[in-house]
Amino acid sequence: MKFIRKLKVQSAPSQTKLFGGLIIAASLMFSQAAWAAGTASGTAINNIAKLGYSVSGVAQNEICSATGPAGNSLGNGGTSGTTCTAGSNGAINTAFVVDNKVNLTLVTNDVAAVPVVPGQTNVVTTYTLTNTGNTVQDYSFAAAQLATGSTVFTTNDNFDTGACNVFAETNGTPGYQAADTATFVDELLPDLTKVIYVVCASIPGTQVNNDQANVSLTATTLAGGAATAQGAALTNAATNTAGVDVVFADPAVATANANNTNPVQAGVDAKAIANDAYKVVSANLSVAKTVNLVCDPVNGNANPKNIPGAAVQYAITIVNTGAAAASLTTLSDVLQLAGSGPATSGGATGIVFDPKLNSGALPATNCVSGNGANTFSGTGFAAKTGAGIGPGVTAPGAAADAMTAGGAIAGQTVTITFSSLTTSAIAAGAATTLAAGSYITVYFNAFIQ
Predict the structure, then answer these.
(1) How many domains, in total, are found in the chain?
(2) Which residue from 369, 366, 367, 396 is spatially nearest to 384, judged by alpha carbons?
(3) Is the model's pLDDT at 363 over the cut of 90?
(4) Edge to edge, what strands does the sheet with 185-188 contain?
(5) Mean pLDDT over the full length of the chain
(6) How many helices (H) and strands (E) does the chain have?
(7) What confidence tier does 355 reach under pLDDT thresholds 50, 70, 90?
(8) What are the φ and ψ backbone dihedral angles of 432, each rounded to 5 degrees?
(9) Model pTM score
(10) Helix (H, G, I), strand (E, B) or coil at 6
(11) 269 near 177, Cβ under 8 Å?
């Protein structure tokens, strides 16, 4: 409201000055934008000069110019204010047409190498093409693998992707999609842009973290004017003619930029080149299963032995030493039964899952399921997660490690479902994603039969 009152008390000249200034500023911005690419090719530039003169102090009829060395000597019927019109009283326009200045830019939209994983298909790098010339043009494209050892984003190339294809943004939705099917750019007006995608078929499954494939995209300017059809190749005009000549004006690049995304280029060839890269950024998982003797029925937990009736604890640790998170699904383990060891005289053989997980601090002379205050009753499973490589075979030491969901035993098959794995310290679903540089360890006990 204060602002409105101030406007009301301004004098008319002040208001005129204010709005006049705004109009001038807007006109300047429009003018700068409109002229970014220059005057459109084919534009006719026509001019007629006008001469006013007098003889012995008497003003004579003005004379309008004509082309050619002879010019025009016919008066135009007035001594001042004459309008020179071509074809009237010998006046002829001095004229030329604006030629086709071919210029373009092509830059990658990616600020770093595109992260990919081994075995990934249809990987995409993204670019922007701009018509910086003064004529409607078509553009064709070619993608290529850069040589081994070439550097983009400060990293050397050491592998090639599968075959690459090039598509222009077609359906208007940002990002490459199957509906982006145009293989060339058709009728791009001066100052306008088009997003271009290089889509490479696959990343070899044998690649490892930090491997990088460097690719290049070349855009070539073609003749415009025929909608839906790819234009013909252009030829740089050798001489100036009366018609619209084609003039290649794309500059050379003598020194590549720091990332080599704008590489050295010849220039004056109606082409532009941009480099990009795919970098393997994947999880690197290891699975370690260890066993720790907890107790036996003779020695308790004082120097126990692997005899029938003894309890052992298994720790299965998954460590991600890679550069990207991994989505975990299930972990399965089949406990050993009879037939895989020496023959016995009869009875149960192998190991049997303990449904009541013992922490390991048991009475010295007893070794039974669910013995003592250090029993994690319930599912018989425990889990820990955190940064680093994990605690290894160290038994879970707190009730917070007891797993309330996500672990199951069917016959002799143990199954851990990470999407539902839950402890008081791990919420359901949290164990599904194993971040880079972290671990998760699952524990359970079994009795030797």
Answers:
(1) 3
(2) 396
(3) no
(4) 114-116, 271-280, 212-223, 137-145, 185-188
(5) 87
(6) 2, 31
(7) confident
(8) -65, -40
(9) 0.75
(10) helix
(11) no
